[in-house]
């Protein structure tokens, strides 16, 4: 088999048999054996289950096995899971791959606990998913936040320029690593080859949250993968852009900068001792599908999407579709970013309006909504989405839209490259007593909760950070635009917890 990667247009060769799915095949053998189950789970291969729902669940219940003879165990794989992970490592260009059944969340928490002991410092891109901050909190690490760059048209955060990260490494030679998100949730991806080299010269690993890029590097038509550019640890949500079931993800390791045995030990601590075998098998099958069919399908899907996107760009009147910019090295063609040309219409409003047209977007923010396509999209399915976008465009042209609010002063992050350490570490702040304060009165206090506009799950404030007037203003602006905040102590966002 020959697989063409995107980085330097190299050609990678594999002699492994990717038509096999060893873990899935083991579960099928388990089902056919029809042995009497005298072990968990309690539904006994589907024999004892809700009758009304059995028709939907029966086929899955028959392979909803547990660690037993002939199936292998996730936390010390020696057989079918080990084989499946080896095939996955080969497909994605890793030295070793760990299967995850708690999403990329588990991968990020595992990385934090592997790299950081209490008090250790690590450089962290500030626009990370909340699971990264939770991992650092549990690990007792002291993150050094670096403010991201902002794409000028969409105002979406992306990886900070290399010079800023190099400066941070020089000023903090005792850090345990550099941790970035690439691509962002909208598919914007930076070339990180030089960053990986800079990290390695400093003697630290580069960790990449590549949750939205498991398909990267799998065809010349999509951006290169983080592993192919020198990253040491890469977390991927295989369920987001590939075909695994929800919560099924992978953690890839390359090189010798990460203590692999410790990582395996940590994952054994934070993942269930009774993992879902259907989820694990879906990772095995997602890899097989990708290698045997998906890579070719990506090529055809990208051609179809690019043709439709280019036509839309010239036809839309009230809406616009992002076509890339010089500040972004790679654009994921499976993601479309749609925004209103009238700033009075927010991305939050567009999300709701598209939903009313039976079109559910993946993500939204003050300006944009993001559409996510699969690796295999038929012409008629893409055309259906195009019709919905055109319908929305016509609807907006006829709407009486008020004067747009001023979004120019909305500050989500500090100026690009700014380094700042929270007043208290996440771990310290989590364990401090706290009290409620009105939003205006909280200015100058230390935040006692995570302020989380969602999606995408990037905290505006984390416990231990000092609350500024800009934070308060941005919270009010987001709330007025219709933003949803996940798990706040006050649903109205008129108050929040501060540390005593």
From TrEMBL:
One of its GO terms (molecular function) is transaminase activity. Residues 22-332 form the Orn/Lys/Arg decarboxylases family 1 pyridoxal-P attachment site domain. Transmembrane segments: none annotated. The keyword Phosphoprotein does not apply. It comes from the Bacteria. Its cofactor is pyridoxal 5'-phosphate. Residues 419-481 form the Orn/Lys/Arg decarboxylase C-terminal domain. The keyword Transcription regulation does not apply. PANTHER family: ARGININE DECARBOXYLASE (PTHR43277), DECARBOXYLASE, PUTATIVE-RELATED (PTHR43277:SF3). This is Aminotransferase class I/II-fold pyridoxal phosphate-dependent enzyme. It comes from Halobacillus shinanisalinarum.
């Amino acid at each position: 088999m020959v697989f063409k990667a995107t980085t330097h247009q190299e050609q990678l060769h594999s002699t492994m048999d990717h038509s096999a799915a060893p873990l899935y095949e083991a579960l099928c053998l388990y089902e056919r054996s029809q042995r009497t189950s005298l072990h968990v789970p309690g539904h006994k291969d589907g024999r004892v289950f809700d009758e009304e729902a059995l028709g939907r669940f029966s086929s899955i219940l028959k392979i909803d096995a547990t660690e037993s003879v002939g199936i292998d165990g996730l936390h010390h794989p020696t057989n079918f899971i080990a084989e499946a992970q080896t095939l996955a490592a080969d497909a994605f260009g890793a030295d070793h791959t760990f299967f995850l059944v708690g999403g990329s969340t588990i991968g990020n928490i595992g990385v934090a606990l592997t790299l950081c002991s209490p008090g250790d410092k690590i450089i962290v891109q500030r626009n990370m998913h909340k699971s990264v901050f939770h991992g650092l909190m549990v690990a007792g690490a002291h993150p050094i936040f670096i403010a991201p760059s902002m794409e000028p048209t969409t105002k979406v955060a992306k990886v900070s320029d290399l010079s800023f990260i190099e400066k941070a490494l020089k000023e903090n030679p005792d850090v345990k690593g550099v941790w970035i998100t690439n691509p962002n949730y909208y598919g914007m991806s930076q070339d990180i080859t030089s960053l990986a080299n800079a990290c390695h010269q400093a003697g630290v690993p580069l960790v990449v949250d590549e949750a939205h890029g498991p398909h990267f590097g799998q065809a010349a038509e999509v951006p290169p993968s983080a592993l192919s550019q020198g990253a040491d640890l890469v977390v991927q949500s295989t369920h987001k852009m590939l075909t695994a079931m929800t919560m099924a993800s992978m953690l890839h390791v390359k090189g010798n900068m990460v203590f692999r045995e410790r990582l395996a030990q940590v994952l054994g601590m934070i993942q269930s001792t009774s993992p879902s075998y259907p989820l694990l098998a879906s990772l095995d099958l997602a890899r097989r599908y990708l290698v045997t069919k998906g890579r070719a399908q990506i090529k055809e899907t990208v051609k179809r999407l690019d043709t439709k996107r280019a036509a839309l760009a010239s036809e839309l009147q009230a809406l616009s579709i992002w076509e890339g910019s010089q500040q972004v090295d790679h654009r994921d063609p499976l993601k479309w970013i749609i925004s209103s040309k009238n700033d009075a219409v927010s991305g939050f409003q567009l999300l709701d309006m598209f939903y009313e047209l039976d079109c559910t977007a993946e993500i939204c923010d003050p300006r944009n909504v993001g559409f996510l396509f699969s690796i295999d999209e038929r012409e008629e399915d893409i055309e259906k989405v195009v019709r919905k976008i055109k319908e929305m465009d016509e609807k907006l042209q006829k709407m009486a839209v008020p004067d747009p609010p001023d979004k120019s002063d909305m500050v989500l992050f500090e100026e690009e490259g700014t380094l700042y350490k929270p007043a208290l570490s996440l771990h310290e702040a989590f364990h401090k007593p706290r009290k409620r304060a009105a939003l205006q009165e909280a200015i100058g206090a230390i935040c006692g909760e995570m302020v989380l506009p969602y999606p995408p799950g990037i905290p505006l404030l984390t416990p231990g950070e000092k609350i500024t007037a800009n934070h308060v203003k941005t919270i009010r602006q987001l709330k007025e635009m219709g933003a949803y905040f996940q798990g706040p102590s006050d649903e109205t966002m008129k108050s929040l917890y501060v540390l005593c």
